[in-house]
Amino acid sequence: MALSFSATDVKAYYTNRVPALMQVGAEWRGPCPIHNGKRPSFAVNPITGEAYCHSQCGRGWDIIALERELTGTNFTEARDAVFAIVGRTPADGNGIRREVAVYNYKDESDMLLFQTVRYEPKDFGQRRPDGKGHWVWNLHGVRIVLYRLPELLKRNLETVFICEGEKDVDSLGQLGLLATCNPMGVGKWREQFAAALSGRRVVIVPDNDPATDENGKPHYKGQKHAAAVGASLLRYGCEVRIVELPHAKDATDWLSSGGNVEQLRELVENQVVLTVESLGRWRARWERLGLETEANANADASWPEPIPLQAELPPVQAFDDELLPVSFRPFVRDVAERMQVPIDYPAVIVVLALAGTVNRRAVIQPKENDTGWMIVPNLWGGIVAPPGFLKSPVIHAAVRPLSEIQQDWRIQHELELEEHELTKEENELRRSAWKEEFKKCAKQGKSSPERPDAPPVAPVLRRLIVNDATFEALHQTMNENPTGILVIRDELTGWWSTLDRSGREGERAFCLQAWNGDTGHTIDRIGRGTIHVEACCMSMLGGIQPGRLRSYLVEALHDGPGNDGLIQRFQLMVWPDTDSEWTYVDRPPNKGAEDQVARMFRALVGIGGHQPWRFRFAPDAQLLFVEWLTELEGKVRGSELHPALVSHLSKYRSLMPSLALLFELADRAAARAC
């Protein structure tokens, strides 16, 4: 049973802990004590004591959770401290809690991320290991995953039962069924959980909550939670059923009353697969019952406790192709129309392909006089879209001109290798003859014959594109191609997951360096010797699913241990709204547009080299840059933005000059000025 505090308790606590609060309307306001803010973004409900930071923290607490946040203590210590402040004893808080169960939440590799601890009287707490054999009683910076995630991935062909709590999951698991739940109960479902179950058969087993809770407030929380989970799963192509267990509060209660696997399977078979429409009717049923319960309640009753809203993304602003260089527009429109995809898809890929083509072949000096700040215009980015939305076909179409250049280089390299082998053979014969002649002259006391030329150096394959390579191979390729490379991955999550593995920290750091485009790197290996790259440079493009992206954003948003700036380096990511209308289009590609883009890319791969072209802004453009940079610095140095957004926007210092340089080079290439 959750602890409750009177209005007198609430006032006593906040007077002690946050004395700067002032009455503003129906709430108290003041600077946030968590991030030591300066503006009145910290709001407190003087009746319940619940607090919320509307600025950097972006989250809320009850009194116990706030005390734990302020002091770094566990639940018991925080509870006793709060009771001491408000003049209560632990006995006033329904006695001493007893730990009755611990539930482990693990990642894909079976590594423990955090635990949920169940107490009696009924209560829950979350904790994470601190790496030193102790526990930290919060989940800051921890990746939040489904319960029994490794088992879900291993048994990926089985039906998944989704319960409301870990106890019910374990009860079904003891019968051999595959079950899971989200941590922290009702209202805490996340889209990333649905993404992890994309396309699977799912049975939701809600708690049969009563019409009112113990305080007489309208309830049905379990049923409403099930509706929210179902809607989320349908967005990810899951086959969803909802099974209401008869005459029982939850799965554990139903099994204890004699329910068995065969009866459960029969209940599942009797339920039709949900559609958006049928789920809407199911949700409306419980909302209607909830309204009837509320109407029957006393008119003076307090408002029912709100159910947290499931997150919905706002509409995305439509992309304007006038933001692109003129020479790219026909090609981008053609790909978007033929494939019936948002124009954002080919637009972002063609710009990233342009960045990968240029890389270190040209640089820009953003400031008029500061010659110490040079920017290499390599970029990272890609398309965010669910499976089946043609990410890969768009990528292949947009980078086809680069693939053709790469193929031409391979053919040329094969011819050079053939010639090299002949030259090498001739050289070896000359050296063999020279050795014999040298020995003969030495014996006869004659002067030594003229030494033949040194063995020929093997030709190096010019590389523009890399798809999949080890860390060492990638480093070697950069050594042989000092102008930089373009990494193309149909699915960026594969690359990200590789960098997340234990022991790959060095590779991850190398990739972070390669984003800079101008940082040297040396590898020393026994047997291979020393390989030095004067300036590592890598552009990257690919696709990623929304659910997987959210899971990586968690680290950045909560400043977790994996928040090293990797995700913020993906500056050109598009996630447009998809038009529900579709038109059948069957026509040949725009050959003229394709040829124009191909000619531009071929012109650009021929510039620069070991000495990149250097550019500066024209006088009028310099003024615009100063104005833009001044506005940007005001945002990132202020206190209004979330730290993760500050980290992302700070990378724009190089993004804007990079785009300016790339578009200038595109215009020159189109005009045959290169």
Defining key terms:
single chain, alpha/beta, 22 helices, 674 residues, Rossmann fold, 22 strands, five-stranded antiparallel beta sheet, Dna Topoisomerase Vi A Subunit, Chain: A, domain 2
How would you characterize the overall build of this protein?
The protein has 674 residues and is α/β, with parallel strands linked by helices. The N and C termini lie far apart (74 Å). Helices cover 42% and strands 15% of the residues. The chain is built from 22 helices and 22 strands. Strand 3 and strand 4 (51-53) form a beta hairpin. The chain has three domains: 1-95, Alpha-Beta Complex (DNA Primase, Chain A), CATH 3.90.580; 144-299, Dna Topoisomerase Vi A Subunit, Chain: A, domain 2; 323-405 and 464-670, Rossmann fold (3-Layer(aba) Sandwich). The model is unreliable at 91-95 and 297-301 (pLDDT under 50).
